[in-house]
Amino acid sequence: MATNSDETSFKDKTFRQYAPEQAQAYASNRHAYHDNLFKVILAHHQATGGTLGTLLDVGCGPGNSTRPLARHFANAYGIDPGAQMIDVARGISEEAVEKGEPETSSGKPIVFVEGTAEELEGPWRGDGRKVDLLTASTAAHWFDLPRFYASAAQVLNKGGTIAFWASARFYAHPSMPNAARLQEAMVRLELDVLGPYELPGNKMCREAYRTLPLPWTIDPPIEGFSEAGFTRHDWDEEGKLSDGEHFFLGDYTITLAQLQKSIGTASMVTRWKEAHPELVGTEEDVLVKAIKEFREIIGGEELTVGLDCYLLMLKRD
């Protein structure tokens, strides 16, 4: 699969143009990923020669995925092009420092920097430390990947790891009454109602990164990474529980109001709201209508849901 920089640039301005209240809502209503995922990443990283010196989380947003991993590293950084996202991330870190809560294994706070995945400019380049683990949580589909890989090759130590992961969608837990009907309604919301507001990056995420360009599939290939060092994991595809009982990322019993807030942080929803400001919060709001349908299906206010998960890991030669 040959690709070039133009074909792999799916930049989305939605998150980088967030207002302060939008960035705060994102931080509050997006769950941090389950420790199950971080255990797999750290185990693979260390088993393949990676060390726990420096973490760099790219497209970090408010730092929801940065913090659980930072506790294992002596130095931790987050970089994001959204100024408001970085402000929220810094604010949360300042609160942790004030409470005396260490964010890294060395006790240093996480450093959050406004910047892009394509340049990866920051203090990790000039202070004698190279990056050991580079992560991107639900973000790689917005990168200009040829440029990102070239920059990543410059900042990663040999034996260092890139870990990309994301989730395609929410799923109703199969133990729920009317789970199949609820799932059909969720998919209709995503594909039929919000589909017109999908960008190529959203589609790549929905397709579980199966078309995500990798360094050796780009024309010309990006040096520094080999296909032999590539690993992929998939959990709970199409909502079919990998262990037959629980979602890998955890089962969540939440209210419909909480589900509405969580779905409301999706970029496609933000773009729908921008296109229909007069309908936001009315009976014609797409989320108001969807939640009403969900309520009729489950006959109540609570539901148990989970997320699928896919993880791609690459090694620096």
Order of helices and strands: HHEHEHEEHEEHHEEHHHEE
In round numbers, the mean pLDDT is 90
- CATH superfamily heading: Vaccinia Virus protein VP39
Measured by DSSP, the beta-strand proportion falls in 15-25%
Major beta-sheet overview: 7 strands, mixed
The CATH class: Alpha Beta
What is the helical fraction, as a range of percent?
25-40%
List the domain count as a whole number. Answer: 1
Structural class: alpha/beta
Strand order of the largest sheet: 3-2-1-4-5-10-7
| Radius of gyration (Å) | 20 Å
CATH fold field value: Rossmann fold
Secondary structure elements and their pairing?
Layout: H1 20-29, H2 35-47, E1 54-58, H3 66-70, E2 75-80, H4 83-98, E3 111-114, E4 131-137, H5 145-155, E5 156-166, E6 170-172, H6 179-193, H7 200-206, E7 231-235, E8 252-255, H8 256-263, H9 267-275, H10 286-298, E9 302-307, E10 309-315
Parallel strand pairs: 1-2, 1-4, 2-3, 4-5
Antiparallel strand pairs: 5-10, 6-9, 7-10, 8-9
Domain Methyltransferase type: 56-164
Organism: Cladonia borealis
InterPro entries: Diverse_substrate_MTase, Methyltransf_11, SAM-dependent_MTases_sf
Description:
With 317 residues, the protein is of the alpha/beta class. The chain has one domain: Vaccinia Virus protein VP39 (Rossmann fold). Helices cover 34% and strands 18% of the residues. It is built from 10 helices and 10 strands. Strands 3-2-1-4-5-10-7 form a 7-stranded mixed sheet. The chain has a 3-stranded antiparallel sheet with strand order 6-9-8. α5 links the parallel β4 and β5. The longest helix is centred in the N-terminal third of the chain and has 16 residues. It is globular, with a radius of gyration of 20 Å. 39% of the residues are buried. GO terms for molecular function: S-adenosylmethionine-dependent methyltransferase activity. This is Methyltransferase type 11 domain-containing protein. It comes from Cladonia borealis. Pfam families: Methyltransf_11. InterPro entries: Diverse_substrate_MTase, Methyltransf_11, SAM-dependent_MTases_sf.
